[in-house]
Each structure stands twice: as structure tokens, then as C-alpha cells.
């Protein structure tokens, strides 16, 4: 890739680790234990992969204190190898601003303000009344529709839509009257919004995505949702309107939360599950219909439909 | 925001309402009862919020006849406060054409026709054989692939894809032969297509989205679906190919309908539900596996798998 | 549309079919049996539509040998009418390169290589370290983020995102540390990626989409997934990280597969189903909670929650 290289000493100092072997060893990339080649650093954080430690071609391995004795060559010893790997991965990030050096077309409405440190990709649309703070990145082909505020150090991945119209209509005799969506979307700092996500602005009050939230790709968040700090939501989930969710919420992929609910802090929801009621007790909630061989499923399915209460 | 203001008399006349208090009172924005400040108009449509009526700082409140006696200050009395709120919300819409005043790049194929009243956002792609009628809006970063007709007064939200290739292949010895998709996508008038939606054009005959349909964000509609007038579909749903759906269909988020089905008028489907058979009787259909605490779910799950028919 | 026309002889030779009627008959388009008009060719592949054969206005019909005796007018007799229709559909494809004749803005990073035969639509973003091989098409408003390789004859539909950041974080005391995603996304030849799909590049090793894979719209594939040859996945599905899937996998819409699983060749998964365990036996797996009238569902639902193991 782009040729960054670091001494083992450099890397150890970034993660407050103890060096095993030559501190001047040069590391050029990160690899898994199985696929490493000389010049690579690897890490062991899941005991399932311990079997690969003795045969790896990695020049160095990040390990915890317990596994330090099993190092075949050089290494860095830390309390939490996975956290250390995360820190070191950033050093090998190539092209943190990939838009340098090409002419970029994007649109910022005259009523919006974008800090000069913000990186904006090609074809980004920033509509009226938006404000984007320091060191945030808005990647290619994203649309910030209206009334969107984004804090510092956040990342909006490509083709996301922020501040879109909430789904609000009043029924009338001939169909529906559209309710104009006059609120804002307030996104905090250190937030990541995945590729292809859609987050609506509020109808009157605001939609809020608090600091540290991480959304995977293709997540939908409806108008007037409040999503608490450090929540992490996997791909293809949807949260319906006016639901308030506490801190550290986690949700597996393809799951949803109905509207107008209250969810306390520290709730985990499994994949492919729908939350239909407010949750007042932190914990782990699941609602998957078990997948089975088609014949067995057909029998279970008939059973469920026949038995009532 | 942009400084529209209206007298109470102006607003009352828009919704055929009766004025309580000073007709010349100036209203500058809309707010909820809880968050209103002086200069705001609010509304009471859900009895759950009646408790906020006595303490609101709103200068005026839209209420029904029953609640008119409880008005603390000025107000507008109507039969349906929610419908009145919808009408008045449009008056406070800022920047109905947010693309004015910037240079816009978009693409319209030489075989396509776009009425001069149509608003097109930046980076919109309009491919061959498309026709877009009066007063429709195509928002930023949307793609109209091929053979797409859109009626009047419709809104296509950002990053939607219309007229994409249907998912059609004929199996062959070595995999699949692509079936070119030669049909059209016909979208009616007063339709809204949410951000990030994808709607395929027909394989041979057309895909049809009838007048007044509202799609929330990230909805997928496959080729040759016919979706009846005034249907409303919540976020992250999918409708499979060649299914015909009647008028006033409603579907909660993350739900789906299998292909080649017929659904009559006036069917409502809950969230996170799959419809696997044609529906010949209007009504309310649900197929959610209840979410439970993980331990309880595990027991229910084993029970379902063990008991057959 | 664009006025291609073919003699019946021309068409029969493309599909190795036997001609019934005038070999010089001119065919101008394809239509279904029900909606055909003179000048059209139609096909009969599903016996359900046999009733339309006697009254169709099609000038010619593609049929199998069994149905050849029922032809009212001209036709082409083949072993597999559906496969023949697929081949002939390509002849009537209008504007295979719809981007000719307009000025196109797109972005290719200086470190990336795109074969000169590749068709690129407007507003496409191709970031660092990408390689796109012969005759592949990248449609409008798509983003190739980083480290994306695409083989020959593949089609990327509009507004897709390829090579996006995988959803990887290491928990720390104050939230999460981002894990930079350093791997690649390797897409084979003859692949189609639907509109609005998102496919993440690998964290360290690569994400792989093998030859002949077809993804419908709005499918999400997480980092380090390996998806086997000729797999076909319907709309709005999601596959979680590090799952390895064999050849000929098929999955209905709105379904998912959890992470770190192994799925053998020739597995079919129904719509709206979650796969939570590795699958070592090919076959057909389903996990749908049956949709019912709301009252019946409520009873079944209480029953499920009360009965444990």
C-alpha cells in the first residue's frame, strides 16, 4: 500500500506495551496470524487462534501477559491485545483523506457552515441550515438534506442521507396531507454513520444521535428518535419515530424498534428481532423464530398456528 | 429559520378554523406543547398530551371543539387538529427549493423529457426514456435508470434509485443468464419515494406505483409489482416481484411480501412480518416472533423446535 | 424504444431453436402473451400461462417441444423457453451504455487503475488502490471506497457502495476505538451488485465475492465475508462479518446470516429468516414466524411466551 513503516519500539510506545525481542525491528504492515509474512505484526486476542501462534510468519505478535511465554519471535505484551491492535491499525491507515489531488464537486447551501478542517467528498450535498464541526468527514455521494448539525471527529460514510424528511402525513378524505418536517437532526461527536444509512430530521422537535454512537451500513433512524451515547447498531436495522433509547444500546442486524417507546440504558437486542414494547430493565432481548430444515419448520409453523393461548 | 410569520387570522383561514383570542396575534413558528416559546403555535391531537395544555408557553394552540374550553390563551378550533397542523406545517417549510443559487450538475439523457417546472437536485442521473411531469421534485444523488415515468407533484427523496434492473436470471449450466429488463416503472402523482429506496422497472410489462403512494426510506420494490393508490409503507420493507397490491395497503417497517401474490384493498401488515400467501380479506396481519429476555426466548425456541404439528 | 428489429430466423439462430412459420417474419419487441401486439415475440415457460397461448396477439411465441403443436402462428421451438427468452432479451436491450453523449463527472484516485473498456457513470467515486477489469460497468452515483478489485463483465448498479469500512471497534473505557479496515474487497467476474448495496472491505484479510454472484438491491455484506460462486441473494438481506458461504447459496429477501459461520455449498434460505448457526448439510432452511390475522397472532404469541421447553 502506501509504505508506512514503524520500529517495534515505536509501536510499543503507542500502546504502552512491553517489548519482546529487537526494539529496532521494522514493521511494515498488519496481518492475521495465519496469513502474516515477514515484516508483519499480528495479534492474538481470541484463544481460538492460539494454535496459529507457533507457526506464524509474523515478525512480531501482540499478546497478553499470559501468552507472552509462547511468543516464537518478537512481540509486544499488553493487557488487551485487541485494543492495542485497534490503536496500531490507525497507523497503517492509507489515504485518510482520499480526496486530495482531484477536483471535487460538492454543494454547500449558503445558509450552512462547514468548519475548514472538515473533509468533504465528491458529490456531497449539504442543504440549508447545516453546521458541521471540526475534523468531521463527509464521504462521497452523501446528502445532508436540511437542519443537520454534526459535532467533531465524526465520520459519515458514503451514500448516507442525513436530515431527510420524516415519514409524517395526516390522513384526509382523499389520501394524505404531508406534514412538513421542521425539526433538526443533531449528531454528536465521535459518531460514525455507515454507508447508505438514512436518518430523518425531526418533525418539530429534533432527532438526536448522541456522542460516540456507531451505526453500521443501511441503518434507518426515523424522526424524533433519541439514540443514547455509545450505542452501536448493526447493519440493516430500523428505529421507528419518537423512540428514546438510552446509553450503550446494542442491536444485531436486521432488527427494529417500534415507535414511541422508551428503552433504558444498557440494553442489547439480538439480530432479526423486533422490540414492540418499552424496556425498563437492562439486559439481553431476543425474538428470533429459529431457522430449521424446511420440513421441520412447516410442522412447527402449523403447530404455532393451531395452538392458541 | 427563514423568518416566515403569519397572523392567527391567516392561519385560521387556511384550516377553516374558529379563532379564540386576538386575530392579529403574530405566529413565527410551530412547536410542541412542551417545548413551545412565545410566538409559537402548537396543537393538541393526542389526549396523552392534554396535561401539557395548561402550562405551555405557546402563544396559540390548535384544538378540537371539546378541548376549546381548556385553552389558556389564544387558539384555533377545528374538527381535526392533526390535519390542521399538517396544513399549517407547510407554511413554515423553509427552502422548498434548496437548490436555487448554486450551480447544479445533473444528467438527463437525450431521450428523456423533464417538465420545466420540475426541481432537480445535484448529481441526479436521469437515464434513457424517462418522463417527469409537472411540479415533481427529484432530490440530490438520486438515479432514474431507464424507462421511468413520474406523474405530477411527486417527491423523490435523496439517493433513491428508480427503474433499476429487476433481479431476473435464467439458470444455465454455468450459472445464470441475465434477463434484460425491458419494461417501465410508472409512478403516479402525489407520490413520495423515501431516501435510499430502490424500485425496479418491469421485466417486460411495467412496475406500477399508483397515485398517492408514500414510501418511507430504504424500501425496495421489485420488478412488476403493482402497488395500489394511497398505500403507505414504512422503512426498510421489501416487496418481491410480480405481486399486485390493492389500495390503502399499509405495512410496518422491516416487513416483506413474497412474489406473485395478490393482496386486496385495505390490508394492514405489522412491522417485521413476512406475507407468504395472497390475502383475499382486508384486515390486519401480523407475524412477529415476540422478543423476550434471552433466557426465556431460548426456552420458547427449544419448545417450538421440539413440538411439531 | 430504440427500434431494433430481427427476423425470426435471426432470433432462432441465437437460441438454437427450430422455426415454425415464416423465417423472415420481423420481430420488433418482446411482450408477455397477455399484452403482446403484432410485431412482438412472446414465450411460454410456465404452464400457468398456457391458457393465453391461443388468444395472444404476439406474432411469434417461444415454446418447448410439447407445446409446439399448440402454436397459433409462428414460433421458435427450444428445450428451455425461459433460457431462450433470456438470450433474446439481451438483443432488445436499449442503451447498453446510457452515458454516451453527455459530459460525465466521476472521480478515480491516482493509485487506481480502470481498464479502458470499463463504463463509468456520472458521480461515481473510485477511491485509492482499486482495480477494475475489462468490460465491467459501474453505474451512476456508486462509491468504491478503497482497495476494491472487480473482475471482468461485472455490473455494479447505481448508488452501491463497495469497499466501505467494516464495522469494527475495540471497546475502551470511554466508548470505542475504531479499527482501521486495511483489507481489500475482491469481486470476481460476471458478478452483479444491486442498487444501493453495501459491501465492506476486509479488516485485515479480504472480503471476497466470487465469480457469478448476483446480489439484488440493498443487500449488505460485512467485512471478511466469503461468498461462493454463483450465489444469488434477494433484496434487503445482510450477511455479518467473517462468515464463509459456499457455492450456489440462495437467500430470500430480508434474511440474514450471523457472523463467523460456515455454510456449505448448495444451501437455500427462505425469505425473512435468520441463520444463527453454521450449516454443514445442503438443503432448504426456513425460519419465518407465520403471519396471521392480528387476533390469532396475539393468541399464538401468548402461547409461545407461556410455554417453555
Automatic annotation (TrEMBL), chains A, B, C:
Kindly state a single biological-process term from the GO annotations of this entry.
Answer: lipid A biosynthetic process
According to its UniProt record, the EC number is 2.3.1.-
GO MF entries: N-acyltransferase activity
UDP-3-O-[3-hydroxymyristoyl] glucosamine N-acyltransferase non-repeat region domain location is 25-91
Please name the SUPFAM superfamilies in this protein's record.
Answer: Trimeric LpxA-like enzymes (SSF51161)
According to its UniProt record, this protein's enzyme class is transferase
In this protein, which residues make up the domain named Mannose-1-phosphate guanyltransferase C-terminal? 105-163
Q: Where does it sit, as one GO cellular component term?
A: membrane
Please give the Pfam families that the UniProt record associates with this protein. GMPPB_C, Hexapep, LpxD
| UniProt entry keywords in alphabetical sequence | Acyltransferase, Lipid A biosynthesis, Lipid biosynthesis, Lipid metabolism, Repeat, Transferase
Q: What PANTHER family has UniProt attached to this entry?
A: UDP-3-O-ACYLGLUCOSAMINE N-ACYLTRANSFERASE, UDP-3-O-ACYLGLUCOSAMINE N-ACYLTRANSFERASE 1, MITOCHONDRIAL-RELATED
Task: Specify the protein name.
Answer: UDP-3-O-[3-hydroxymyristoyl] glucosamine N-acyltransferase
Amino acid at each position: 500500500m502506501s509504505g508506512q513503516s514503524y520500529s517495534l519500539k515505536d509501536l510499543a510506545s503507542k500502546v504502552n506495551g512491553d517489548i519482546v525481542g529487537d526494539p529496532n525491528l521494522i514493521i511494515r504492515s498488519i496481518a492475521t496470524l495465519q496469513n502474516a509474512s515477514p515484516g508483519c505484526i499480528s495479534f492474538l486476542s481470541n484463544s481460538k487462534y492460539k494454535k496459529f501462534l507457533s507457526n506464524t510468519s509474523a515478525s512480531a505478535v501482540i499478546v497478553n501477559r499470559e501468552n507472552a511465554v509462547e511468543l516464537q519471535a518478537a512481540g509486544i505484551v499488553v493487557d488487551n491485545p485487541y485494543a492495542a491492535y485497534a490503536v496500531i491499525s490507525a497507523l497503517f491507515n492509507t489515504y485518510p483523506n482520499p480526496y486530495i489531488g482531484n477536483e471535487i464537486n460538492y454543494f454547500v447551501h449558503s445558509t450552512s457552515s462547514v468548519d475548514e478542517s472538515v473533509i468533504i467528498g465528491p458529490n456531497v450535498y449539504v442543504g440549508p441550515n447545516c453546521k458541521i464541526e471540526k475534523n468531521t468527514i463527509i464521504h462521497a455521494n452523501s446528502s445532508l438534506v436540511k437542519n443537520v448539525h454534526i459535532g467533531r471527529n465524526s465520520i459519515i460514510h458514503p451514500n448516507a442521507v442525513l436530515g431527510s424528511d420524516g415519514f409524517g402525513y395526516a390522513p384526509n378524505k382523499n389520501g394524505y396531507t404531508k406534514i412538513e418536517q421542521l425539526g433538526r437532526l443533531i449528531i454528536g461527536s465521535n459518531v460514525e454513520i455507515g454507508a447508505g444509512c438514512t436518518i430523518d430530521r425531526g418533525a418539530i422537535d429534533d432527532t438526536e444521535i448522541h456522542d460516540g454512537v456507531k451505526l453500521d451500513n443501511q441503518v434507518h433512524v426515523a424522526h424524533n428518535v433519541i439514540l443514547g451515547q455509545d450505542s452501536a447498531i448493526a447493519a440493516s436495522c430500523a428505529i421507528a419515530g419518537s423512540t428514546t433509547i438510552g446509553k450503550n444500546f446494542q442491536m444485531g442486524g436486521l432488527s427494529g424498534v417500534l415507535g414511541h417507546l422508551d428503552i433504558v440504558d444498557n440494553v442489547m437486542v439480538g439480530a432479526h428481532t423486533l422490540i414492540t414494547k418499552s424496556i425498563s430493565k437492562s439486559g439481553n432481548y431476543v425474538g428470533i423464530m429459529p431457522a430449521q430444515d424446511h420440513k421441520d419448520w412447516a410442522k412447527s409453523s402449523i403447530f404455532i398456528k393451531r395452538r392458541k393461548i
